[in-house]
What we know:
4 copies of one chain form a homotetramer.
Chain A: E1 4-9, H1 14-23, E2 29-35, H2 44-47, E3 72-75, H3 82-88, E4 96-98, H4 108-115, H5 124-127, E5 128-130, H6 133-142, E6 145-147, H7 151-165, E7 172-179, H8 194-197, E8 202-203, H9 211-222, E9 228-235, E10 242-248, H10 259-267, E11 273-275, E12 291-298, E13 303-310, H11 314-328
Parallel strand pairs in A: 1-2, 1-3, 3-4, 4-6, 5-6, 7-9, 11-12
Antiparallel strand pairs in A: 7-10, 8-9, 10-13, 12-13
Helix pairs in contact in A: 1-11, 6-11, 7-9
Amino acid sequence: MSKKKIGIIGATGYTGSELARILLHHPEVEIAAITSESRKGERFSEVHPFFRGLIDQELISINEIENMDLDLVFLALPHGVSMDFVKEHAADPYPIIDLSGDFRLDTPEIYEAWYNKEHVYKEGFENAAYGIPELFRKDIRRKKLIANPGCYPTSAILGLAPLAKEGLIEPNVVVDSKSGTTGAGVKAKAATHFPNVNDNFRAYGVKSHRHTIEIEDTLNKIGDAPLTVQFTPHLLPVDRGIVSTIYSRPRPGVDVSQIGDIYEAYYKDEPFVRLTDQPPAIKDVRGTNYCDIYSTYDERTNNFITISAIDNLVKGAAGQAVQNMNLIFGWDEILGLQQVPMNP
Amino acid sequence: MSKKKIGIIGATGYTGSELARILLHHPEVEIAAITSESRKGERFSEVHPFFRGLIDQELISINEIENMDLDLVFLALPHGVSMDFVKEHAADPYPIIDLSGDFRLDTPEIYEAWYNKEHVYKEGFENAAYGIPELFRKDIRRKKLIANPGCYPTSAILGLAPLAKEGLIEPNVVVDSKSGTTGAGVKAKAATHFPNVNDNFRAYGVKSHRHTIEIEDTLNKIGDAPLTVQFTPHLLPVDRGIVSTIYSRPRPGVDVSQIGDIYEAYYKDEPFVRLTDQPPAIKDVRGTNYCDIYSTYDERTNNFITISAIDNLVKGAAGQAVQNMNLIFGWDEILGLQQVPMNP
Amino acid sequence: MSKKKIGIIGATGYTGSELARILLHHPEVEIAAITSESRKGERFSEVHPFFRGLIDQELISINEIENMDLDLVFLALPHGVSMDFVKEHAADPYPIIDLSGDFRLDTPEIYEAWYNKEHVYKEGFENAAYGIPELFRKDIRRKKLIANPGCYPTSAILGLAPLAKEGLIEPNVVVDSKSGTTGAGVKAKAATHFPNVNDNFRAYGVKSHRHTIEIEDTLNKIGDAPLTVQFTPHLLPVDRGIVSTIYSRPRPGVDVSQIGDIYEAYYKDEPFVRLTDQPPAIKDVRGTNYCDIYSTYDERTNNFITISAIDNLVKGAAGQAVQNMNLIFGWDEILGLQQVPMNP
Amino acid sequence: MSKKKIGIIGATGYTGSELARILLHHPEVEIAAITSESRKGERFSEVHPFFRGLIDQELISINEIENMDLDLVFLALPHGVSMDFVKEHAADPYPIIDLSGDFRLDTPEIYEAWYNKEHVYKEGFENAAYGIPELFRKDIRRKKLIANPGCYPTSAILGLAPLAKEGLIEPNVVVDSKSGTTGAGVKAKAATHFPNVNDNFRAYGVKSHRHTIEIEDTLNKIGDAPLTVQFTPHLLPVDRGIVSTIYSRPRPGVDVSQIGDIYEAYYKDEPFVRLTDQPPAIKDVRGTNYCDIYSTYDERTNNFITISAIDNLVKGAAGQAVQNMNLIFGWDEILGLQQVPMNP
């Protein structure tokens, strides 16, 4: 049987090159088109020289995909740009997996409040599935537009889902996250200038980071009791990876000794969630679609502590997008995603 | 007037070399003795080649300090070794500033519970001052034994003191700390092997780190209402520095809008605490005795968020020890401690 | 057809885990045995937790492989230990690919001079093929013992081979190499303690590094005119990767304008050598079996400058070993080795 | 006696902030003016928040220095901008120490050839002293314009000077240099984007870097025999520091066993050159004005190998500039420059 023809819309960023890295060896697809408006006409391997000899195909304009008979497209575009594509191509037959934040939130109003931007395609919200397969597998399978989750939200939501789902915790939750620098994108700016990051560490976006609402929104969809999330991101002097350290408190009457079993039951059939007996490190998951989760209860303080680790470019972006594609096409979810962690 | 004669007991570790770095240019002291049992007879600059031409004096045995007429000694010894020195030298006339954890806690019983070790000099506890000048200046001035604080506790306690002192917060506090690798000491081990740390990140000591009790103990000394601290340390791929992100909740009735003023009032005369309007970064304080603190209130979640940054080897160890020495001798507290942050 | 049964002798080091990473997805082999004397009885994923769920098989003792009917073994053992294995198993039917330095040099005498160690199996030398496929493909195919090359030598030899083969250069060659820290092995020691490597850089082994003779020996096997190599290794604050900057001078009469063509002709059919028009970076090859090579001639100085980049754990160790295995079994040389560079 | 009034022209870059770091504690000067056209009106500590509480003075425009009666100015301006300042202020009474490359080369013609830029103040060349005190102390003392050397040239020239001075080496010299990222300046660009540098390494500017001619020019001023320098810079994933590994060959008849004595004799009275018996590391000199030099002869290859290490922002820029100022004012050369290396 012939392979599915895939388009990657947006080639120059990290999600674009990471999609290419994963899709290149996916047994059921071929990368039929990679687009870039700023670099069209150049080879993909001119933009990303490490692909020399691996992907030398020419970058095309977005306008050229019309007649290509694509089976699915990934949008590796910035926030605010994806919505234009989705709007214009809403009638096209292929499913769209959007890696931006444009369709992740509950309503256009919430989007506009947290993204400070008018949304041009409000109709998209009701048709979009939020693409965390572990939580919304059924919905993903039947939707044509997938809002691929943010990197921080993926780590926080997978860490909290078992507790939120069962309504086991008090409403006030702390998510203290630390991310590698690729999360800030491919564009050079002062915040990611090497001497500003190397041997350094700081928090940013305190109280105001957009992923706050994405985490809250999603947890409140799966659980009964509304949670309020205090989310604080920090910039690590590493390339990839997110560790989220999550603090919550059991509701009165909850059998805290069951925390291990709760996670076990929730994730027992998930190929990409590994429960660990030690706090997971970034390099345990680097380059892979795994989310490693450690959870424990502290009797002395009456807190649950949950620690999750993902690769922000894989489970936090391109890998999860491919997992969603596998779901959409009814394939084994792990196709193309069996990388071994790069450690060291 | 002649300079005070100072002894550094323990030369091979980071606190030893950092004390030397600071004391070398202190205008009122001379480094009269540096001891090392394992390297005695060698020059200090053979152990630390970067001191070549700066400190080439010979390392001596601890036994040789008896007749040296020292004015003060710093103990840069491991936990469990310091107590032996203090016991044997309790009758000596010079003040001792102990950089280990041996006399920091409230009682020998608490020590033995958290350090898993019998304490050989229980009498030391009542005579020791806990050496955070910003909190215990008066006590430090009149004691002969200073328990120089742990690095994590310094960052957490300075961050929380204004809130704890005034009894403004609920008992359950989260301290999520991230430290550079020098905090783990000079000895090579798997946990600090370069490929295990570089481009990596992880939590450790969850629920059980000894600094937990040091933080709690101290905060409960200065405040009315007992606090319980959930302390989680993490290992950063950086050399120096600690950032602590601290989450607490105001007690009912507290005027949360005053948080800025509370910190301002508490620290307004402190030369080494700088209040910032942005989350501080490690490199803002690297190489210096500063503790930079940012604090804010999140209306949406009803949480206080406080973020502090120190250099673990300076304000978290050798610098604070020198600050304590300055207090003991009645000097200006900033003598020898006016380094400019090394950035980048 | 059934898969070949492979043994990995020595599981705890970086070459062991890297072999496992590559062989796990090799379509024609199964990892039948992984041995470790110090950790036998434990799971492979207990020693390397990032393999959790991927390779959970039990580590066995080397003594247990006798009756396993293995088709090939890789020796991921330290220098000086491999030779014992080879000696004892010389009569066994399976080919051995030895990743140590024990059989790389020309004669036992040279070995003993540079390794300061008596060699227990001198007979091995004449039966061993030096495992750089690009140079010795034919020899590798017909030998039962492969001396897998050192990491630095691989980078230097592939960089110089086209010039050495044709006798185009003067005898005095400078190889200035810079390596990631994994090259120093998995064992924690002062030289690889994080604070000694991070944000730091230095040369080591000046004039005396053992790889000097391996480079010279090999180049002199393929070329007419003897070369003398000044090899200086340096330790980079990175995990993986070697960049070698190589300086040589054309012999009188050599047509220096042909340097590009010479490399092109020499490597045109090699799947793992990529010629570049810019100096290659470590991340261009990280995680892969590629050797990227840039070469140029400087008219002003009359020097050739050649720069090569490899991943020391892949093309410099485990990947090249798998490439040699592919040759031995007559498979396509790229089987199992099609990883895309991990960048970033 | 009153302190000398110093101006720093250009505040936003690394040389500007590093000058401020050093001058702040210089006992004989006060920082009377710091200029910035882009940030004038802001405080210095707004541009560099780590100076909060240390240097909070307001940045002024370059136009405002006219009536300030400055005693000396440092130009921390980009190449091509400095020359304008020097031209306009040539008649002003104060000495100028220019940290750019605008007056370092022998003639305007050479400048224009290597910098691809017309020079607007050709008269400046004959009046400028090249500011390496170890080589040109007398000249520096009597000139009013100091061309402060480039960072790479400082490391290369100090490494080679003893050999070049005495005419001991063959003309063809290889300088293989590795530099921290601050050498590329404060401005964020793709080449210094964190994920492009971290865990990575590469050469750049092969055959064409401007510092090539600065090294050659200067060495040829002090020695009898003309040298040709093959200079290859590489970008290290570190903040600060340069290590240059230098390869040269003795002329026939040279007594190679004397290499140690030659360096010893040449540098014996220099406060900032330390000769070492091991290859120096960046952290041995970080934050200081030291140049550590190791030199050796390899009998096997008949090469001299010299390795030098400096901090590119100190001995390679601001520190050497202050050393030049000390010379100009007839002060002890080490004033303000006694920092202890920051290690780790």
